[in-house]
């Protein structure tokens, strides 16, 4: 064999060995990468904000509460409080209406919107005591009206007053938390109360009447919000993707098992089952609960809400809400089959 032939054979052998070494290394890296996420998820603790009788109950009833990671729930009475907790890095993920993140921008908050939930808006009303003489929102002029600041209650109260030519300045508007509002309402310290959720059937038990519903005022868009560092963490990101899919599936279960859900939810919030069931049926007639990736229409809807708050003087400057939205989980939500 000539010197050139030997040189060529050596070169071929060297290239062949190099190829197989590279392939082996690549296979090893790929295998480790694939195994890294499941192995690490057992060490992940996802800090989840919830309402009473909320996500934890819904996931349990749907049989979707066996997680490959740890879930630590914290209970809140409103999305505004959840936003504050996210800003303090006390929780990773929560749900809220379109409104709380708007106020987070003004407070230099770090919250991000990662998904939307379309749902019914029947559980959003202005209540008056059973002996109230008020017939319309216009009758509240000069009266003491409680509301939950930086929530849907704040927003729909502004809109209802606008519809009759009034503003918040025309009533004695008193910002209160849900528990404080319910207490004040029951004591007779309020002439009306703009509220939502389980507080409504609780107040109705005492004879409260609905003065006006926000059913046709609110968009039905609710958002899922997350803490930015949780989104950036690969393992927490994987846990959040999984959690979102479970929520999406549990919403389908809830809408298909309204009676079973109502029974458990009524027990959780200490309200008569028939009241919860009737409200749930009414809500289902309006629209089903459904989780969606972020969209231009959802961003546009929130922008209109922000503009309303600015016009009413509730926030100090006009906002562009688009930077609030993060599409990190849009693909995972789209691929999740409910």
Topology of this protein?
Blueprint: H1 3-41, E1 45-50, H2 55-61, E2 70-75, H3 79-87, E3 93-97, H4 99-106, E4 112-118, E5 124-128, E6 144-147, H5 152-163, E7 172-175, H6 178-187, E8 192-196, H7 199-204, E9 209-213, E10 221-226, H8 228-232, H9 234-256, H10 258-269, H11 273-286, E11 290-292, H12 296-311, H13 330-335
Parallel strand pairs: 1-2, 6-7, 6-8
Antiparallel strand pairs: 3-10, 4-10, 4-11, 5-8, 5-9
In short:
The chain has 338 residues and is α/β, with parallel strands linked by helices. The chain has helices at residues 3-41, 55-61, 79-87, 99-106, 152-163, 178-187, 199-204, 228-232, 234-256, 258-269, 273-286, 296-311, 330-335; strands at residues 45-50, 70-75, 93-97, 112-118, 124-128, 144-147, 172-175, 192-196, 209-213, 221-226, 290-292.
Characterize the structure shown:
The chain is an alpha/beta fold and about 350 residues long. Helix 3 runs parallel beside helix 4. Helices cover about 50% and strands about 15% of the residues. The strands form three sheets. Strands 7-6-8-5-9 form a five-stranded mixed beta sheet, sandwiched between helices. Strands 3-10-4-11 form a four-stranded antiparallel beta sheet, sandwiched between helices. A two-stranded parallel ribbon has the order 1-2. Helix 2 links the parallel strand 1 and strand 2. It is built from 13 helices and eleven strands. The chain is globular, with a radius of gyration of 26 Å. The N terminus is likely disordered.
